[in-house]
Design goal:
Elements lengths: L5 E7 L9 H5 L3 E8 L4 H10 L9 E5 L4 H13 L8 E4 L4 H17 L9 E5 L4 H12 L3 E6 L4 H14 L3 E5 L3 H8 L4 E4 L10 H5 L6 E4 L16 E4 L6 E3 L1 H21 L5 E2 L1 H12 L2
Parallel strand pairs: 1-2, 1-3, 3-4, 4-12, 5-6, 5-8, 6-7, 8-9, 9-11
Antiparallel strand pairs: 10-11
Helix pairs in contact: 2-3, 4-5, 4-9, 4-10, 9-10
């Protein structure tokens, strides 16, 4: 293959994770993988990728930033872009553990269902369960940027989410509240005011029972990313996309409905990178924009 499109997967330490390269291959990239690198390696790796190709092929070269930490991935993008110089500027796409596109898809489907009733996230009280994880934190950021009043709920107490709320608040200029979700009583206290619930807990963990959802008087939508039984939200099935939750006035959004948009979003962004005649630098903001395009009527 002459002058192929090459995607360099960079997995940072700590918490390095393996990559699923299927989407990149399906999008037409040849793939190289660098696992367990330190953030301090980014400048050298970026310049190695740049200078190893002719300037005319710069836009055919892309760095994919992975790992399991949103802040580290975003910092790596910033460092990579700062290391570039004309005419060797290459593309960068951050989607650590697929979290950016997953969070984007989740919030986009919530937005879709709100829009169907002439509503929006602005001013809504959003509770994010599983907020300690990478997807939950980004879900909170995107919802807050859309004007929602977001509470990050810690399954083992507020201490587990206080640092993330402070860090993301300062980084993105938003306000994120925190709440205890350690006990059923604590969860029910959160649900007393929640209008939107987004469950982003780890696979196989039930976050809320149907009884708890039925006891949330203001609940409009409940979304769950857990596709492994038991599901995160009892009675919200995998393919639900706006299906009424029994015994409530709320609508449910399931993990595979979200996963469908996540897959299309990540694949679409990879295709954009491959087709672009100019370098692109993509993160969760671009993922959310594309996810909204995918759910548009």
């Amino acid at each position: 293959m002459s002058n192929p499109n090459i995607l360099h997967f960079l997995t940072p330490l700590p918490n390095a994770s393996p990559f699923d390269v299927n989407m990149a291959m399906d999008a037409g990239f040849q793939v190289a993988i660098y696992s367990g690198i330190a953030p301090t390696d980014i400048t050298a790796l970026t310049q190695d990728a740049m200078f190893s190709r002719a300037p005319a092929d710069a836009t055919k070269t892309c760095l994919f930033i992975g790992g399991r930490d949103a802040a580290v991935a975003l910092d790596m993008v910033k460092t990579a872009v700062a290391a570039m110089l004309e005419p060797f500027v290459i593309s960068v796409f951050a989607d650590p553990s697929g979290a950016f596109t997953t969070a984007a898809a989740m919030v986009a489907l919530v937005t879709k269902n709100l829009r169907a009733n002439g509503d929006s996230l602005k001013g809504k009280r959003v509770a994010v369960f599983g907020a300690k994880g990478i997807v939950g934190g980004l879900v909170g950021v995107i919802a807050a940027q859309e004007g929602a009043n977001v509470t990050l709920v810690g399954h083992d107490g507020v201490q587990s989410v206080e640092g993330k709320a402070k860090e993301f608040g300062e980084r993105f200029g938003i306000t994120l509240d925190v709440a205890d979700g350690k006990s059923d009583e604590a969860k029910e206290a959160v649900l007393a005011d929640a209008e939107i619930v987004m469950a982003a807990a780890r696979a196989g963990v039930q976050v809320l029972t149907l009884k708890q959802l039925q006891g949330a008087p203001k609940l409009l939508i409940a979304a769950d990313i857990n596709a492994v039984p038991p599901l995160g939200l009892e009675s919200v099935d995998l393919f639900d996309d706006g299906k009424p939750i029994p015994g409530t006035k709320a609508l449910g959004i399931g993990a595979l409905a979200i996963g469908d948009i996540k897959f299309k979003c990540q694949h679409g962004l990879l295709r954009q990178l491959k087709a672009s005649s100019v370098p692109l630098h993509l993160d969760f903001t671009h993922a959310y924009k594309h996810a909204l395009e995918l759910i548009a009527p």
